[in-house]
C-alpha cells in the first residue's frame, strides 16, 4: 500500500508568478483550441481488449487492467522528445500525469444508467442515488434526474428538472431530505451560466427555489455547514476566470431563512471542480483547477475551445476559527471530483478525476486511482484502481460497496486522454487502510 506524504504531492509546484503568466497567456488567446474533449466515440475500444470479462447472471466480474508504463507514441511526440519525462533539452518534466501504483480491485458491472452523462451531479440519500443533469453529447444536455436504488440495484425512477435549472457544473448538497441545487451552466457546448438556485424535496418530489446567487458560477464548491448553504469558488461568467468569492445563506427544511446571500471568507484559490465535504463540523475543500474550456469568441453555438488549466491537489479546512488551514495534499493533482467522493469511517474516499495535462502531448489526462484521506491520521493513500480512468464520475457507498456511474472515460489503458461519455455503473467492495 502506498502512503504518500504531504511533501510528495503538488502543493507549491506552481508559484504565484508562474500561475499568473500561464493565466495571462491563456486569456490572451494562446490557449490550445481543442477537439479532444469531445472526440467522436466511433472507435470505442472494446472492453475485452484490456480486461477479462466474465458474465454472471446480472453482472460482469472483471479484473482491472495492469497499469502499463506511461508511454508516448512516435506520432504523439512528433519525433521531438526522447521520453515522456524528459524534454528535448534534457529537462525533467513533472510526471504527475502518470498512473500511480495501486492495488487491483474486483469490479462488478451493474445496470447502466438510462442515459450517459458528463459533468452531471449526484446526491445519495440512504439507499437512493439521485443522478442529475449533465451533457449527453457536447451538443445536448439532460434536464432530468435518474434514481438508482442500492438495495435492489436497479434504476427505479426519474424526475424532470425545472426548465430554468442549469444542466451541468451545478453546485449541489443535501440535508438528508432536501437537495439544494445552485447555479451552473445553462445549455450545451460552453454556454453561459445561470445564477438560479433550486430545492428538491425528495419525499414529495416537489421543486422550490431560493434567492439566486449574487453572480452565476460554474462548478462552485457547495456544502451545508452549520445551518447555512455555502457556495464558494468556481469559474466566473466567462467559464474560465477563477473566482474566490464565498457566500452563504441560512436554510432550513428546503426554505431560505434570509433574503440575501452573506459574504464569507474567500477560498484560497478559485476555479471549478473541487470536492467540498463537511465531516465532524469541519469543512474541507480538495483539489480542483483554475481555468477551463471557454466559448470560442463569436461562435453562435458557443463552441467549446480549450484554454490552459492548472490542476491542484491541495486540501484546505475551515473550522471554528474561520481561517483556511492547509492539510496534506492529494497524492497527485486532481480535478472534476465534485461528486466523486464519499465519507466512510472517518475517511474521505475520492475516485478518478483529471490531473495535469501530459507534458509532451498536452492532452488532458484522466485519473484511474481511488484515494483515501484518513481524517484520524490526516494521511492520503492510494487504495485501488477503477476499471478505467474516468472524470466527473458520480460516487456512492452502500452496505460495504463503493459505486460509481457516469462521466467520461479514457481511450484505453495506454491512453489516458478522455473519450467516451458513459452510462455504466460499477461497484467494488471498499477496503480502507487503517
Ligand atoms: C429500495 O429498494 C428496497 C428493496 O426493494 C426497498 O425495500 C426500499 O424501500 C427502497 N428504498 C427506497 C428509499 O425506496
Ligand atoms: C467501517 O467500520 C466498521 C466498524 O468498525 C467496520 O465493520 C466496517 O468494515 C468499516 N468499513 C470499511 C469500508 O472499512
UniProtKB/TrEMBL annotation:
SUPFAM superfamilies xrefs: Kelch motif
One Pfam family here: Kelch_KLHDC2_KLHL20_DRC7
InterPro entries xref list: Kelch-typ_b-propeller (IPR015915), Kelch_repeat-containing (IPR053256)
Keyword set, alphabetical order: Membrane, Transmembrane, Transmembrane helix
Biased segments, Basic and acidic residues type: 73-85
Transmembrane region(s): 20-39
The organism's place on the tree of life at top rank: Eukaryota
Annotated region described as Disordered, given as residue ranges: 64-91
Protein name stated in the entry: Kelch repeat-containing protein
Source organism (scientific name): Turnera subulata
Amino acid at each position: 500500500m502506498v502512503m504518500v506524504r504531504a511533501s510528495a504531492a503538488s502543493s507549491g509546484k506552481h508559484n504565484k508568478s508562474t500561475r499568473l503568466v500561464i493565466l495571462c497567456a491563456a486569456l490572451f488567446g494562446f490557449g490550445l483550441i481543442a477537439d479532444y474533449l469531445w472526440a467522436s466515440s466511433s472507435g470505442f475500444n472494446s472492453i475485452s481488449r484490456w480486461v477479462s470479462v466474465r458474465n454472471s447472471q446480472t453482472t460482469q466480474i472483471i479484473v482491472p487492467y495492469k497499469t502499463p508504463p506511461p508511454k508516448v507514441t512516435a506520432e504523439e511526440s512528433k519525433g521531438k522528445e526522447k521520453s515522456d519525462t524528459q524534454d528535448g533539452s534534457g529537462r525533467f518534466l513533472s510526471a504527475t500525469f502518470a498512473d500511480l501504483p495501486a492495488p487491483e480491485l474486483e469490479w462488478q458491472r451493474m445496470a447502466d444508467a438510462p442515459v450517459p452523462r458528463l459533468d452531471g451531479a449526484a446526491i445519495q440519500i440512504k439507499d437512493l442515488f439521485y443522478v442529475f443533469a449533465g451533457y449527453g453529447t457536447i451538443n445536448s444536455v439532460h434536464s432530468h434526474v435518474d434514481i438508482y436504488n442500492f438495495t435492489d440495484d436497479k434504476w427505479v425512477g426519474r424526475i424532470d428538472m425545472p426548465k430554468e435549472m442549469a444542466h451541468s457544473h451545478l453546485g449541489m448538497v443535501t440535508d438528508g431530505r432536501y437537495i439544494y441545487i445552485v447555479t451552473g451552466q445553462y445549455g450545451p457546448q460552453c454556454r453561459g451560466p445561470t445564477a438560479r438556485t433550486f430545492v428538491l424535496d425528495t419525499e414529495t418530489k416537489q421543486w422550490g427555489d431560493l434567492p439566486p446567487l449574487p453572480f452565476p458560477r460554474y462548478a462552485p464548491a457547495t456544502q451545508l455547514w452549520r445551518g447555512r448553504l455555502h457556495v464558494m469558488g468556481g469559474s466566473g461568467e466567462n467559464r474560465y476566470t477563477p473566482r474566490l468569492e464565498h457566500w452563504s445563506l441560512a436554510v432550513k427544511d428546503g426554505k431560505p431563512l434570509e433574503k440575501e446571500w452573506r459574504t464569507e471568507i474567500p477560498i484560497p484559490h478559485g476555479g471549478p471542480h473541487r470536492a467540498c465535504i463537511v465531516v465532524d463540523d469541519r469543512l474541507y475543500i480538495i483539489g480542483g483547477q483554475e481555468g477551463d474550456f471557454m466559448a470560442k469568441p463569436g461562435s453562435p453555438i458557443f463552441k467549446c475551445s480549450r484554454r490552459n488549466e492548472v490542476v491542484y491537489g491541495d486540501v484546505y479546512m475551515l473550522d471554528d476559527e474561520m481561517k483556511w488551514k492547509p492539510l496534506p495534499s492529494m497524492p497527485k493533482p486532481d480535478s472534476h471530483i465534485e461528486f466523486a467522493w464519499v465519507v466512510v469511517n472517518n475517511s474521505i474516499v475520492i475516485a478518478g478525476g483529471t490531473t495535469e495535462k501530459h507534458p509532451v502531448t498536452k492532452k488532458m489526462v484522466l485519473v484511474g486511482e481511488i484515494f483515501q484521506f484518513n481524517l484520524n491520521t490526516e494521511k492520503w493513500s492510494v487504495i485501488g484502481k477503477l476499471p478505467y480512468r474516468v472524470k466527473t464520475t458520480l460516487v456512492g457507498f452502500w452496505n460495504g460497496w463503493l459505486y460509481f456511474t457516469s462521466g467520461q472515460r479514457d481511450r484505453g489503458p495506454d491512453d489516458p486522454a478522455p473519450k467516451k461519455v458513459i452510462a455504466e455503473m460499477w461497484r467494488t467492495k471498499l477496503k480502507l487502510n487503517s
